Amino acid sequence: MSDAKLVGIVLVSHSAAVAESVAELAKGLASGGTEVPVAPAGGTEGGGLGTSAELIAAAAASVDRGAGVAVLTDLGSSVLTVKALLAEGDELPGGTRLVDAPFVEGAVAAVVTAATGADLAAVEAAAAEAYDYRKV
């Protein structure tokens, strides 16, 4: 399958290390399938804790293959930053969605589902369903 039809995934965290680690984990657990375009967007341009509209926009552009981009966030201001970018309308690729999902479990579900060639709605649904995962 060509990656031209895959949904891209952006993982937004207040920490670059967290975003990169969750991206690595999700891609590793989805290994053996099609390589999903996943980009971390963590921290600020200077390497500090926080969120950066510029890093998020760049990450979204880097994973856009024309099938939509699912953006998962960790905490409060990362959600607000993505919402502000979506409201501006021209900062993110068309078909970008902010996905309401747990960060780690949702990222894994999104990447695994995207690797099957699923569309953006299915990727979003799989990530959101991760809220229902029971651990005990």
Polypeptide structure, described:
This protein is α/β, with parallel strands linked by helices and 136 residues long. Helix 1 crosses helix 4 and helix 4 packs antiparallel against helix 5. The mean pLDDT is 94.
Entry keywords:
4 strands, 4-stranded parallel sheet, 5 helices, alpha/beta, globular, 15% strand, 136 residues, single chain
Report a brief summary of the structure.
The chain is of the alpha/beta class and 136 residues long. It is 44% helix and 15% strand. 46% of the residues are buried.
How many β-strand stretches? 4
Low-pLDDT residue spans: none
Q: Residue-averaged pLDDT, rounded?
A: 94
Let me know the largest β-sheet.
4 strands, parallel
Identify the strand order in the major beta sheet: 2-1-3-4
Q: What is the number of helical segments per DSSP (H or I, 4+ residues)?
A: 5
CA-atom Rg in angstroms: 13 Å
How much strand content do the residues show? Answer: 5-15%
Instruction: Characterize the overall form.
Output: globular
Distance between the amino and carboxyl termini:
37 Å
Range of helix content: 40-55%
